[in-house]
Amino acid sequence: MPINDINVGLTANDGTGDFLRDACIKINDNFDEVELELDGKSDIGHTHSTTDVIGLSQYINSVTAGHTHSISDVIGLQT
Question: Which residues, other chains included, contact 33 with Cβ-Cβ below 8 Å and sequence gap of 6+?
Fold first, then answer.
């Protein structure tokens, strides 16, 4: 399943974005997708390596058509 973009509209409160419930469903689906990708890699007490983060970044790039993410997007990610 691909990562779902949340449509935030053109400007604040213009009525063109996703409804709140629909956006939250997309958020939950996105977390499910990331959790599946990290399954078995994220244990309590486990330290994630740079390879884990780069792998996740590459995975996100592969499922988000038209969007690119760099390692700087995940700087500050902590276990």
Answer: 1, 2, 3, 63
